[in-house]
Specification:
The protein is an alpha/beta fold. The chain is built from seven helices and ten strands. The strands form two sheets. A seven-stranded parallel sheet has the order 1-10-9-6-2-3-5, sandwiched between helices. The chain binds 2-amino-2-deoxy-6-O-phosphono-alpha-D-glucopyranose (GLP). The site of 2-amino-2-deoxy-6-O-phosphono-alpha-D-glucopyranose has 14 residues, from helix 2 and helix 5.
């Protein structure tokens, strides 16, 4: 695993954006696994800037997002489809038909999970999968549990996640209780995984994910088994990892 320890959120975002841009430049028709949340927003902002300067094109890129709240319409301002449109897709030249986010309004969630898993399989392994970390070590919306879910599935969100994500909603009561998420198996198929983590409230998750036992109680700990992981974090998120050479 390669670790980039950056001084703050902006430096972390620039580093993450450089890695994503390098992927796109070296394979313009790559498959990008994309993530939502506050951690990747700065990286998306930087990618948009490079696109606007004429340095980066998404015209051939195919994208597949990790997850979506179940019950939110694509135009709901807290849906992950809306997030992706506003924080990236609407500002770059990616073809709308090449973007994929689970359908939060699917009448039959089980069917939607199968459709999404099939779509991800058709696209093939993500060349680069971007991941944030939940405070409880979740990836996508794979919450701590007694096994590693393999494929895209409907999940009940934990109280910790509902509380963490309540900041985006009018109240905790408005946070959806369920989500559709890629499975751990879907995520682990990616050729390369880029984890971004910022802030002191991620220090515990980073520490247990990368130095603790591999357990579904800390879903991100499975990443220790992936052959090509890059962790980009700021000082506070990486504060519990030993400094290089220590
Ligand atoms: C949500 C998303 C995750 C994300 C996590 C952390 O729960 N499903 O994919 O990594 O939040 O978000 P943030 O980056 O805002 O801390």
């Amino acid at each position: 695993m390669r670790i980039y320890r950056e001084k703050d959120y902006d430096a972390m975002s620039r580093r993450a954006a450089s890695i994503i841009a390098a992927q796109i430049l070296s394979k313009p028709d790559c498959v990008l696994g994309l993530a939502t949340g506050s951690s990747p927003v700065g990286a998306y902002r930087q990618l948009i800037q490079w696109h606007k300067q004429g340095d980066l094109s998404f015209a051939g890129v195919r994208s597949v997002n990790l997850d979506e709240y179940y019950g939110l319409a694509p135009d709901h301002d807290q849906s992950y489809r809306y997030f992706m449109q506003h924080n990236l897709f609407d500002h770059v030249d990616i073809k709308p038909e090449n973007t994929n986010v689970p359908d939060g309004l699917a009448a039959d969630p089980a069917e939607e999970c199968l459709r999404y898993e099939k779509k991800a399989a058709e696209l093939g392994p993500a060349d680069l999968q971007l991941l944030g970390l939940g405070r409880n070590g979740h990836i996508g919306f794979n919450e701590p549990c007694d096994h590693f879910p393999r494929i895209t599935h409907l999940v009940d969100l934990t109280e910790s996640t509902i509380e963490a994500n309540a900041r985006f909603f009018a109240s905790a009561g408005d946070v959806p209780r369920q989500a559709l998420t890629m499975g751990i198996g879907t995520i682990m198929r990616a050729r390369k995984i880029l984890v971004v983590a910022s802030g002191a409230d991620k220090a515990g998750a980073v520490y247990s994910a990368f130095t603790g036992p591999i357990t579904p109680e800390v879903p991100a700990s499975i990443l220790q088994l992936h052959p090509d992981v890059i962790l980009v974090g700021d000082e506070s998120a990486l504060s519990r990892l030993a400094a290089p050479g220590a």
